[in-house]
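Hi R.,

Here are the chain sequences for the assembly we discussed:
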Amino acid sequence: MVKTLPFEEPVVQLKSKIEELKEYTTKAEVDMTVEISNLEDRLKKLEQEIYENMQPWDRVQVARHPNRPTTKDYIQLLCTNFIELHGDRLYGDDAAIIGGIALLEGNPITIIGHQRGLDTKENIKRNFGMPHPEGYRKALRLMKQAEKFNRPIICFIDTKGAYPGKAAEERGQSEAIARNLVEMAGLKVPVISVVIGEGGSGGALGLGVSNHIHMLENSTYSVISPEGAATILWKDSSLSKQAAEAMKITAPDLKKMNIIDEVIKEVYGGAHRDLQAQASYMKETLLRSLQTLSKLSEDELIADRYDKFRAIGEFIE
Amino acid sequence: MVRDLFRKNNKNKKYATIPTEKAKNDVPEGIMMKCPECRKNVFTKDLMKNLKVCPSCDHHMKMTAYERVEIFLDENTFESMDDHLQTDNPLNFPSYSEKIKSDAKKTGLNEAVLTGTGEIDEQKVVVAIMDSHFRMGSMGSVVGEKITRAVEKATELQVPFIIFTASGGARMQEGVLSLMQMAKTSVALRRHSDNGLLYISILTHPTTGGVSASFASVGDINLAEPKALIGFAGRRVIEQTVREKLPKDFQTAEFLLDHGQLDAVIERKDMKETVSSLVKMHERKEVTTW
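And here is the predicted structure of the full complex:
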């Protein structure tokens, strides 16, 4: 059973009402087709009303939905022949970031992404998708490998943030992220990042210095979680709903600020409601990006990335 | 403070000092100043002569950006850049603009970093000096822009880029725009590096969060001042996550040195000489003759 979020409660209720009536019609031999079709019309309107007017906090809830598709799901739905490659060759293998080579429309690509777990057991293994330095260093190793063999890189961003732990600090969490930013800036192959869930701060950006950044409609990208922002700014974490609005963290917000390239539309209610459809929306965007970027030379790709990030910032000259 | 009066082992003290707002200020204005580490009083004059390093305990106190220019660059060689850039309030945070104005007045800076060209022992460099007295040295659009322009200037002049970092991280009030400054400065540093130019990062107290996780950590050479706090996540956050007490020296410069994250920890009095030799050794020569 898929968890219902508070804001979509009316839709779910109406849906179950319709189901009830349908069942009743078949059992009791009473013709209620007219009523049902009326209700179905109403459902359509209600869905439109609710899902097309989602507030930032609603989107945060969808982005964090336990059934929200993860990097693995998209790899499976978009690619064939995926071979996962492990380890940073320095310390270990971080299960919070996965990566490897696969075929997309028959062409080899390197695909890397944060990986959450689907249940508690897997989440412990994957550290809830919060990487250690070795995760970023594995990602960088795979990116350099992709560069050598001239295949494009796709990064899926889905993390609350890089892990704030003792071991992470000892092994250089800062340096690992910082190194990725500088190295990604110089990659000679197309790099595309897609935020598929939560894009939490530096831990997200460590896979985010790309030519194109796309976001799923109900994903977020921010410098701090709404809860954290509320605590720091108003000393009250219960104001996270207001913080989600004030911090401008949703895909439409970032599109407006010209930080991202495309908002990838989601199926009604969020990506978890129809994985197949969602993957096909994602594929359209990815192929469009790849077609555009494949026309650029190595130098042009680097210059394109430079210009993209060079332009971000608001100030008075 | 009042309790000190009654403490047995504090025989010499016959009075209590109530710290005023002025005395709490990091920028010394009075005749005496108290070392925040060993709590001993020092004559401000002596302290300045000692480069704001406590003569009793060697604690390296915070410096303003202008003080660093004084002790680090050759006299009268510094020319500042981009002092005209003004911080906007892109997310319309209440009282953000006022806070910026008040810190600008307090520090004489337009933002939390001072950038410009200058010379070290007659060698031309571009410097960026962060100042933690300005909004904790946090990085918003203007800080990112000033650093990026400084790096670009160094690339254009084909000279080394040297930064003194001091920052609590990304500036919350500018949201994701602050985060993206980490990427912006990185693409500029990449281009500088691809030109075969030297970048020295000098991490001073404190360098944390988004600044530590971007330009501060990717110098060709990373130096730090003694005992400087350097880290990605805050100590309290980590303690809450791992539920254990962290060692006292956790996230100090010495801790990072031990863990292979720094090239060297250098005392303030030796910093100019060290950097000057490093710059000298990276001088570009057409032909090397042995």
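The longest strand of chain B covers residues 199-208. Chain B is about 35% helix and 20% strand.

Let me know if anything looks off.

Best,
T.
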